[in-house]
Structure formats: C-alpha cells, structure tokens
Amino acid sequence: xxxxxxxxxxxxxxxxxxxxxxxxxxxxxxxxxxxxxxxxxxxxxxxxxxxxxxxxxxxxxxxxxxxxxxxxxxxxxxxxxxxxxxxxxxxxxxxxxxxxxxxxxxxxxxxxxxxxxxxxxxxxxxxxxxxxxxxxxxxxxxxxxxxxxxxxxxxxxxxxxxxxxxxxxxxxxxxxxxxxxxxxxxxxxxxxxxxxxxxxxxxxxxxxxxxxxxxxxxxxxxxxxxxxxxxxxxxxxxxxxxxxxxxxxxxxxxxxxxxxxxxxxxxxxxxxxxxxxxxxxxxxxxxxxxxxxxxxxxxxxxxxxxxxxxxxxxxxxxxxxxxxxxxxxxxxxxxxxxxxxxxxxxxxxxxxxxxxxxxxxxxxxxxxxxxxxxxxxxxxxxxxxxxxxxxxxxxxxxxxxxxxxxxxxxxxxxxxxxxxxxxxxxxxxxxxxxxxxxxxxxxxxxxxxxxxx
Length: 453
Hints:
alpha+beta, three-stranded antiparallel beta sheet
C-alpha cells in the first residue's frame, strides 16, 4: 500500500485538536501544569542554614521579628530522642501509650483520625498508609529538649504544643498556613519544604472553609484552575536528621517526608516584643526537657482573635464575631451571647483589641470552651467567604454595582442591618444575592423581599 499524506491544513487541525484534548485549552500549557508543586519555576533560593544555634535575643531580632525562616543544622542531635528512638526502643518503653493516627499519607482533612496504642502503630506503619500526628506523649517529653534559642525572651512562656510526626516516609501535606510560630526538629529522616513568604502567600486562595489551606493537588497542579501559581516565587528548604527549621507565622508551606520519619514541632504564639527580663540570670545552654514546661492556650486564642479584629479596624460587632470565630473542624460557633458580654467590658456591643487584652489568659481559654487554639478558625472562613462572593458575582447576568456590592462584601453588617437593607432593596436585587445575604444571617429572617424569604 502506498503512503497516505494529509494536507498541511489538516495536519495543523489534527495537531491543534490533540493539544486541546491534552490541555483543555487551545494553547501550550503553562509551565508546571499537571506537575508537582514547585515545578513551574526554580525556587528563589534556599532557606539560610546555620551550623550553630543563636542566642534567644539574636534569634528574635534576626529571624522572628523580620519573619525570616532559617535552618539550624544538627541542632537536635544532642536530644536523647535522637540517640534512642528506634522502633524497638519505643515499642519496649512506650508501647502502651495512646497516640493520634491519620490514615492517608497524602493529607486528607475530610477523613478523621483515630486513637491507636503505640504498639499497634509500630506494627502497622511500615506496611500501610497511616502516620502519626500527636502531641508528644508526656512520658516521651523527657527525652526531647526545647531548642535553646526558645529558652527565654517569650517563646518558652507562650508555648502552645509539641507535635510529633511519625511515618515511614512519603507523606505529603496540603499547602497551608499556620497562625503560629514553629520550630520543627528532625529526629529521623528528611523533609523537603515548598515555602511562600507572606507577600507571595497572600496571592493564594485558601479555599477550604474549615482551615487556612489550599486544596490544590500538590502532585499535579492545575494551572488553569489555580492561575495564581503560574509565576509564584517560592523558597526551598531541605532538612535531615538532627536539623531544625524555623517556619515563621503566616508563611504558607507544603511538606514532603522521606525515609523513616520522626519530627517534633515546637509551636508558640507570635511575639510583639522580646522579654529581656525573662532572660536575666538564665543559663540558656542548659538542656530544658519539654516535660518541665507548660502550655498557655489563652495566649494563642487572644492572638488569633486580635489579628481578626485588627484586620477589620480594631473592633467588630457581636454578630460578626460570632459568625467568624468558629470551631475549625466542626464549623460550630464558639462565642455565646454570655461569653461576649464578659469580653465586652464597656457594653457597647463591640469587641475591641483593647478588650481582648484585659481578661486573664486562663479566663480567655475558658470563654472559648477550652478549645485548643489550633481548633479555632477565623482565616479560613474569611478566605472562603471572599471566594464565594467572587463566584457569586461572576455568575450574575447583570453586574452588581454601587451600594449593593459594597454591602455584600461588608463583614461587619449585623442581622438587623441586613434585614433593613433587604427590606428596602430586596425586590431589585438578584435572587442569588438575596439568598447569599440570607444564608449569612444568624437568625431566620422575618421580612419580605423575594417570595421565598
């Protein structure tokens, strides 16, 4: 049989058709499309690495205050855990301890974890998809030391948690942001970090309501669904056994683990100043076992709520505070009317940053139902609401403008203001806009407008 040749135009058509079928778009795909996070361009650079641990004062002024990540190479090798924590040792000494276990190495926050005995975890983790994420069990705290750069000046008196991460490697986190400062130390294995500074991170949509994280597939980034990643500058950090990495508050990051992997997070509330008196007369080189320290959850709760208030001019009305401050994984309101009255010291129906500074830390913790600060969510709700409004506006046949658009975006509107606005303007607004405003009200509306209200 002779060869069959397609005319040039038909060849071009077939080529374009194949390209469209491959990408869903009639163009070459953006760099990094359907590739792992970070493949779109090389990192801006590697996070700075030091072969020594700075003093608490130097660490605060050179890294915490400017929000600059840093690696302390080999800083955790003096921990007893670094020398002792083999599977056999942990099994023999701590096998009866209960720990929290997650069930998918590629993070899935929709799947709740479970409680295992340490023995059960050790017998199964090498041949399954489970990994441990748990506060360091109290008996094991004796074998982990607080990094000396945290020993005075504020971090040690504002500690929130020590989280132990334990897997056989291969874990992949969501791209997420923590509203807390973090110094992670490796006991075993290595981790590679994709990190975004605060300016770059502000461009990323944190599209899950129950937490400040992004649902982008970290193994296959869809650059059409997430166009903000196309030119996003990022930093790289690789840490191995005995290394510690400082992750500043509000830096987005995504983490992959390799090999038998044990790490411990030291989490503390971000500081507004260095406490020099706290360091007076202290030997910061003396080892401090985690078992000798205490958590102060009220400090982090106060910080989270103050950040929310500062983002909205320093104060918010009761209805708005109650709508925004949620129990992260359940979406429940945390602040009752009675709780609000206790915090609203001047009785004006507004919660201010000054009023959040007044209660004792223990009182604040109780007012928020004793919930761990890591379970208190404000940022995720804000991001999801912004995205929901953008999607709503894009779906309208006629653009929403002027006063109606401003009112829709207004975080501070109360139920009463919403009721008055919809009574006055509801008939002229798109039904989808009215329904959205109605859905944000704490109490069921009792006014007219659309017939179904």
